[in-house]
Design a protein that fits this description.
Number of strands of chain A: 9
Strand content of chain A: 35-45%
Radius of gyration of chain B: 24 Å
Distance between the termini of chain A: 39 Å
Oligomer: heterodimer
Largest sheet of chain A: 5 strands, antiparallel
Order of helices and strands of chain A: EHEEHEEHEEHEEH
Largest sheet of chain B: 6 strands, parallel
Radius of gyration of chain A: 21 Å
Bound molecules: thiamine diphosphate, magnesium ion
Shape of chain B: globular
Distance between the termini of chain B: 76 Å
Amino acid sequence: MADVKTGSKVTVVALVENEPGVLNRIASLFRRRAFNIDSLTVGRTHKPHISRMTIRVEAGPEYARKIATNLQKLVNVIDVRIIDNEPHVERDLALIKVRNDDADSRNTITEICDRYPARIVDVGPKVAIIEIVGTEAIIEEFIEQVQPTGIVEMIRTGVVSMGRGTRIHDTNFINRRTLLEAAAKARNGNGRIV
Amino acid sequence: MKLKGSEIIMESLLREGVDVMFGYPGGAILPTYDAMSQYEDRLHHVLVRHEQGASHMADGYARATGKVGVCIATSGPGATNLVTGLATAMMDSSGIVAITGQVPIPAIGSDAFQETDVTGVTLPITKHNYLVTDVRELAYTIKEAFHIARTGRPGPVLVDVPKDVQIAETEFIWPEDDVVLPGYDPPWAADDEEINAALRLIAEAERPIILAGHGIMMSGAMNELRELAERAQIPVSLTLLGKGAMPEDHPLVIGMMGMHGEASSNLAIQEADLLLALGMRFDDRVTGNLKTYAQKAKKIHIDIDRSEINKNVKADVGIAGDLKTVLTQLLPRLEGKSHPAWIGRIRDWLEDSSERDILNYETPGILLTAQVVNDIWKLTGGDAITVTDVGQHQMLEAQYYPHQRPSTLLTSGGLGTMGFGFPAAIGAKFGAPDEEIWAIVGDGGFQMTLCEMATAAQENVNVNIAIINNNFLGMVRQWQELFFEKRYQATPMVNPDFCKLADAYGIPNRCVTKRDEIEDAVRFAQSIDGPALIEFVVEKEEMVYPMVPAGADLHDMKRRPKPGEA
Ligand SMILES: Cc1ncc(C[n+]2csc(CCOP(=O)(O)OP(=O)(O)O)c2C)c(N)n1
Ligand SMILES: [Mg+2]
């Protein structure tokens, strides 16, 4: 799909039905339409039948719209929003294992960690694990700072986002599963359908 | 009442108004076939000879009727044989439901005999699909499948049912209420602002053109389209699948657009100052080079699929909605207009085209596909449902068989599936038993699904098969002639004797080699109450003109020279 990438990033938040295969459908869509994703996170919401995804894409607004309209076409995708233009909270988490085998590096790391929302969660004689939670930008900055000390292992969860204030991404949906469960309950007093 | 899963499938199909299904049995779907016997009086099963045929038949049925077509197959190879038909239906937005057997739930994931991850395989080529893991969800799932297949932008939906779910029993409760699908809401109407913006562009336009696609017919917006065109005097160009959206003898209809479209249509698109794209998706076969496509035109794009808007061509006004609804919103406020100079220009182009028309050539001693198609058009009163295969004959059908009514040309446009024509014609006949049906197929494509002659014979389906035999994969040969210096690699065919083949299947037949034999043969086929086959032995190296080479500018057409110019 032809669209110029601008170097900027967009965040797409999608509420999806918590059904087997949904992640597969989304991954298949992204592959088929050649959408390049930066990070994708899925997690539960407070409603058991609804999961929430945050998708970060390097793209301009046009490209983001394409992604959103295509996601919307998936039957299991309930609601899609591009949230960059509204105030929102964004968090990424990284675990970074760094070299820690001399006093110098130990000091540097402690010193860097003090300046960031980071803490050392595991210390050994040779390496330490740092946990940092923050916006994508902050984490990237932090990584640059600790890079010279020697990163030996790293994992990032990918960004999750939520609109600020009363911008509520509604999860008040019933779907087939909730409906059939209610019907089964009404019929025989028990019953989750699996 | 407690029913088995297999019986629930039958009961659910009946409640969805299904009266025929096309399928092929096998181990994993056997319980469902066993249940069929109790329903045979209300739910007719057509035994195909290859599951691909079943999916095309369901598709042909759907295209001819606007109802959902149903096909059914066993797990593994049965289901994978449906794949081509599902992809075909997906590309052309045809609403079908495929039911496939699956290995029992405990065996799933174990590479059991005839196990294929069918929901995985068909994920990108279905509108939606299901693996049913609880018999209590079966009825609801089938209801959902039909709803999704037929509404919004229609498409194929597959329901994979493990064998043990077909055998398990549960209380059968047909969900009378509407399905609950929080993530599925096809757009419907336009908002006022969008209508205003569209009206403004129409009012300002001096050289407008309507591009009418398949969506017109799926939405049932034929009258609205006609009113729009007539009141604002806008010429109408049709996509291949849009043929029938407006009667082709209407003075405002200026022919098909695209790679083998009318020069008048393609030139008008390039010169227009407004495109009104209705229920079409700017496929590369209709736009040619996007960079030079309709550069002088503002674009209004109305389509039920949001993701189509701004996909290939940027819209100045993009409206996601149901065409009939949106046009009904627009029409009351549409001012009358006229564009005599613009229409005059298009007439000149049309005149130039008719001078180049192959039918106006002297062609003694040879039979041309265009002549065959045009004579079939005359002899059927232009009123048959024609179902084509893919290739030169398909494009020549589109050029030489004008269609007056919606859904009377059934053809694989988006996927271009050879082998589609004949089985789709059989499916269409089941859906529209009172229509005269002609399968117009190439000698290549027919051989891909000719095994369905047995199906046509067994069911005594009244379809007329016109084989356009040029002893070539003609369309590929045309590309080789134009772009590969006539190196005919793998396109000449040594064919079987099609008439003897028909004899073997007990199908009455004729072979035509001269133009003056056409009428007799067509009348013969029409007189047979059941399948009939005519082989037309045509000129081997015909060309389809005009032609916009793949990726070339839309106005950059290869034309047939005028007589005397060549
Ligand atoms: C299943 C499939 N395989 C290959 C092609 C590529 N293809 C397009 S047209 C064509 C030739 C068709 O030949 P025939 O059926 O004889 O029709 P003709 O063009 O001669 O009228 C081929 C091979 C296709 N469209 N579909
Ligand atoms: Mg041929």
